[in-house]
Amino acid sequence: MKVIKFGGSSVASAEQVKKVLDIVTSDASRRFVVVSAPGKRNNKDKKVTDLLISFYHAVAYNKQTEKIIREIVARYTEIAAAFHIDEDIENTFTSELKALQASYNDLDPYTLDRFLASGENLNAQLIAACFKKSGVQARYINPKELGIVVTNEPQNALILEESYEKIIQWQDSKEILIIPGFFGYTKDGQLCTFSRGGSDITGSIVAAGLNVDLYENFTDVDGIYSASPKLVHEPKLIEYATYREIRELTYAGFTVFHDEALMPAFKAQIPVIIKNTNNPDCQGTLIKKNFTTEVRSDVVGVASAAGFCVITIAKYLLNREVGIVRRILQILEDFNLRFEHMPSGIDDISIILREYQLTREIEANLLQQIEEKIKPDDLSIEHGLSVVALVGEGMRERPGITADSTAAFARKDVNLRMISQGADERCIIFAIRSEQERLAVRSLYYTFFD
């Protein structure tokens, strides 16, 4: 039994939905289908989710909504027409959006969630109708009926463990179930959305709840590549990767998955495969807990992300000062700041943060608190950094990885600001100036993959 999820580009048009139908019906074990809202049909197009955000703001500011409602509904009626759907999709969906508008309440923290989730919810209803019109025994199922129960955190819901006991009851469904991604319901019945990558999270939750053999995630690329195609020409496709490797790569900039999306499948040890709706015969990228050494690569990928800064605290005999790291972390916690890495020497500690957390005011107050409570000999902050991650479970068994990396940087005059590596040796993080990010990624890629 399999759960199969289709992203926005996979359901963006009638042509794409026909591909979805062919893919699902080509394998009888594909019984549970999670869908996103329709994405872009071309580079100039808008995602339905973006249209819904515009709709939300129009309602919030008492602007005219007729045009935006027609634009949203037209995305669905175009697909419905191609499948000769008998139901009056235009009037039905228009009525649902007007009811949504009527429910607007700026004091209700779940209002935005209802607007955002309607893209997936309408699309699941439509795709179920397309399947039935094509002679497939399928039906739409709302996440509440399915049993997806979440925490009461608007736009940032987390799955509750009780959900899995409810979802497993659907494993013997005679019909293919079409499930809208991106949202669940709180215990008191409020619709609440997941964070970024929400439909991926839904797919992972359903796969874990049903304890399926495989979770298939269909998108518009052949799988996960060993480097960003924006930085490297035709990078190698990653055929096999572990959950931990993907977690490291998504953290450091890979965008196929949001880094929370795999958590339910990871906990349940469900294999995940990334495949291409437009090229379904391609092998794709298979993600599991472990692989044999015969298929495992020493290095699976190079990822990068900009938008970091580093605070460096220097103090003579710092290593002898009991509790100093705790005091530093307490200061960060007092400002509600998360740190990413903390490499250290005997007399200095460097704290890498994401820059978006720091306003000028927060930065000034933070440095003042560090001065007052830590009393460093020297305190500095450097902005404009990127992190580059070299990732692979097999690196621990290959001597010289770090030496080869730094030599690659030296050959291209990449100035290395910092190195951080955990004891498991699965990932090496390099901090560099952001203007050298592209050069750094390419130098590592052509060292380990060319």
Q: How would you describe this protein?
A:
The protein is built from 14 helices and 16 strands. The protein is α/β, with parallel strands linked by helices. It has two domains: 2-288, Carbamate kinase; 301-448, VC0802-like, CATH 3.30.2130. Helix 2 crosses helix 5 (111-133). The chain starts with a strand and ends with a helix. The relative contact order is 0.10.
The CATH homologous superfamily of the largest domain is named: Acetylglutamate kinase-like
Largest sheet: 8 strands, mixed
- Number of spatially distinct domains: 2
Radius of gyration: 24 Å
CATH class of the largest domain: Alpha Beta
Helices and strands, in order, run as EHEHHHHEHHEEEHEEHHEEEHEEHEHEEH
Average residue-wise pLDDT: 94
CATH architecture of the largest domain: 3-Layer(aba) Sandwich
Name the poorly predicted regions. none
Function: Catalyzes the phosphorylation of the beta-carboxyl group of aspartic acid with ATP to yield 4-phospho-L-aspartate, which is involved in the branched biosynthetic pathway leading to the biosynthesis of amino acids threonine, isoleucine and methionine.
Protein name: Aspartokinase
Keywords: Amino-acid biosynthesis, ATP-binding, Diaminopimelate biosynthesis, Kinase, Lysine biosynthesis, Nucleotide-binding, Transferase
Binding site for substrate: 49, 120
